[in-house]
């Protein structure tokens, strides 16, 4: 009986860990992009494309509409917020599961700009 429980736990772990780890990597990429682009003139569409490329590399089902890029402040001196919302469907025996993820980051305004 204990061996069966361990086997089920390992199986569930193998199904759940990859999308959770991919989300962690996407969160890191969004955070890096928000910080870097605070000091750049990259357009919102270019930022969105960069995030979508990273999601594609990580095999995350993300569409252009799910990536939100917002700037607050004029002249590039404000903050930049990037967020994405997506769902990954996991087909477990007898218990299908939808994992919802909301990676996001907001850069601080550039001081003295």
Can you describe what's shown?
The chain has helices spanning 2-37, 44-57, and strands spanning 67-72, 79-84, 86-92, 95-101, 104-106. With 113 residues, it is α+β, with helices and mostly antiparallel strands. It has one domain (2-106). It has a 3-stranded antiparallel beta sheet with strand order 1-2-5, covered by helices on one side. Strands 3-4 form a two-stranded antiparallel ribbon. Helix 1 packs antiparallel against helix 2 (44-57). The longest helix has 36 residues, at 2-37. It is elongated.
Write a brief structural summary.
This protein is of the alpha+beta class. Helices cover 44% and strands 26% of the residues.
Task: From the structure above, extract its key features.
single chain, 113 residues, alpha+beta, three-stranded antiparallel β-sheet, two-stranded antiparallel ribbon, 2 helices, 44% helix
Order of helices and strands: HHEEEEE
Which band does the percent of strand residues land in? 25-35%
Question: What is the CA-CA span between the terminal residues?
Answer: 65 Å
In order across it, which strands form the biggest sheet? 1-2-5
Oligomer: single chain
Helix content: 40-55%
Q: Would you tell me the structural class of the helices and strands? A: alpha+beta
Integer count of domains: 1
Uncertain residue ranges: none
- Total strands: 5
- The overall pLDDT average reads 89
Overall morphology: elongated
What secondary-structure arrangement, pairings included, does this model have?
Layout (H helix, E strand, L loop, with lengths): L1 H36 L6 H14 L9 E6 L6 E6 L1 E7 L2 E7 L2 E3 L7
Antiparallel strand pairs: 1-2, 2-5, 3-4
Helix pairs in contact: 1-2
